[in-house]
């Protein structure tokens, strides 16, 4: 089932659009070594490589899903360029960046920072923090209802509320608190 | 309508769960009331954000699951650029290597300093002053000549203890001026000169020029009756490299002839005062005359290089002229005019030596 060779670029685009787990896996496996090489030979660790690479895959994923993805170069080159840019940024943040980095692949220059860190990424970070602060059972209720699309009936049974109104009240309070926590964060 | 009910209504509206009648009423309310409209937009946006966040978390989980299946460790090993062993050695041990190198350099410099490498002139060139093993000879003499001593005293002959140092010298003029090296007579208490036939005369230093290593002595002895005319002449100009030369001197107690050639126009380390000559010389040759085959006196033997075979140095005769001039100018009663008439020109080397040896002296130094 697992095809070890890299999928073609158009296969990847259609695979992502169709939520194909197989294609995602194949593209991930195909290009990871390239990025690992880039990172570990430029003062990084395997864990750094994982972070950077996943960030790049998410950038690709969002671009494809957002429908505004036009591949002007090879997908491999695109991924490499994104990772390179992300790693340079990370290095300068850690201030152990002493000049240019050693390249192992061709890459296209990436000038547009907004491609990499969207407003949405920032909000996700805030959302993650707010959910952490929210605590149980609110966190699970919110996740079940708004993310996993469970019905109020399911939630009611799962948390042992005597009737759906109680559950609704609880959910409402949770949502209000979440909003408060979310907007309190800077 | 409470906040709770409103929120529920908004959610149902957004999810399309309202009946058409309810929706018309709600949309009418929305148009009329801007606050309600804002609430709807905000709610849609916020819940949308929660949903998208959930999707992101889900995607990250999927990616992590895929990542689990990759053998990252093996890949890392494979992809790391392995530097050469020299680079590795340097990276791991550069501090130790630096310390070792510093110590090595220091040790070399210290060794060179202690062994006198930096004092080249004093170690490579030795002055040819002869140090006599006086103790052994004193004992021998004591044993041998106690009786002879008495006899000699009776006959009125001059008795001389063996000297501490010895060198050679040669006559500048027939009235008893003798040239030798400054280093031969340096620090002397008293001086005697002895000719080839064994007669000793007391002498005194009349002039020294340490820069050229030249000293002028004067025989100051009642028994000295003067010398016949000097047979060699003093050459003013420079001599050419390659010319055959010879010397006569006292490396031992009797006069020794030495033959060689002029090998360089300059002396040790480019010293312009001296010639380099290829000539076998020994301690005691210092101050001996250097003559060419026609009997021109061209220099005075002064030193030799220790590490090079057959490289000896001789002060150029030009500087003898300089010193003679200086002496004439400085003192009121000394006047030296160097001989310019050569009577050796046509003689063979052996014949020349026979004549020259009468003008070469053993300089005995006591201190």
TrEMBL record, chain B:
Matching SUPFAM superfamilies: Trypsin-like serine proteases
The residue ranges crossing the membrane are: 97-118
Q: Which GO terms describe its biological process?
A: proteolysis
The lineage's top-level taxon is Bacteria
Q: Which Gene3D superfamilies match?
A: Trypsin-like serine proteases
Tell me the GO molecular function terms: serine-type endopeptidase activity
* InterPro entries named among the record's database cross-references: Chloro_Bact_Ser_Proteases, Peptidase_S1_PA, Peptidase_S1_PA_chymotrypsin, Peptidase_S1C
Q: Supply the Pfam families for this chain.
A: Trypsin_2 (PF13365)
Q: Which UniProt keywords apply?
A: Hydrolase, Membrane, Protease, Transmembrane, Transmembrane helix
Regarding protein family, the annotation reads: Belongs to the peptidase S1C family.
**PANTHER family in alphabetical order:** PEPTIDASE S12, PROTEASE DO-LIKE 8, CHLOROPLASTIC
Instruction: Name the chain's protein.
Output: Trypsin-like peptidase domain-containing protein
